[in-house]
Amino acid sequence: MFTFILCILTTLNANAQDVTKLPEPDKKLGVSLTEALAKRRSDREFDANKNITDNQLSLLLWAACGVNRADKGLLTIPTAINAKDISVYVCRKDGVALYDPYANTLTKVSAEDIRPQLAGRQQNMSSAPLFLLIVSDKSKFRGNAEHYSAMDAGYSSQNICLMCAALGLKTVPRAMMDVQAVTKALNFGENIIVELNHPIGY
Q1: Which of 4, 5, 79, 194 shows a CA-CA span of 20 to 30 A to 176?
Q2: Could you tell me if residue 73 is left (phi over 0), alpha (psi between -120 and 50 degrees) or otherwise beta?
Q3: Would you list the DSSP string of 31-95?
Q4: Which residue, 69, 67, 116, 64, is CA-closest to 89?
Q5: Could you read off the pLDDT of 74-87 as tens digits, one per residue?
Q6: Is the dihedral of CA 38, 42, 133, 195 positive or negative?
Q7: To 10 degrees, what angle do helices 145-167 and 54-65 make?
Q8: Strand partners, 9
């Protein structure tokens, strides 16, 4: 009986460790929208030894698809027919985690480093300390799923670009990646469209 209880507690503890609470995003950056637009650029070289902080990551994810009207559960990005089809994954050396905008948490879904698969033929990109992977669930739409999914991913991507500019970080929006390998690594079903990725760093 004791062994059974110990197994349950161990499992619960392991599951708890798989979910990380992010700090609340500090939205007082002192950078205007026009300044962020002026600073926005595409960068393809990153310092592999300088990591993104949890505070920076929280702001990046909030910009990508976070909640901006908690009373209505609405997001920083528009989505076609309010489908909320977009999900963002954080991909680092220690694995991949899914962002939950409502709980402001990261749930680990894989221990595999998929940055090389995301870099694809541009392996120099894999030196970025993290990638944000944008996917869409096409089952949220009745028709024109590919069109709507691409459109919604674009909104998220632009927000990431602007937040990186505001934070003094480097990024570039990319569709180039080994989609088949990424899909297999994260066990995506047929309804998930792998849209874009953003390597992010200094």
Answers
A1: 79
A2: left
A3: --HHHHHHH--------TT-PPPHHHHHHHHHHHH-EEETTTTEESS--GGG---EEEEEEETTE
A4: 64
A5: 999 999 999 999 99
A6: positive
A7: 140
A8: none
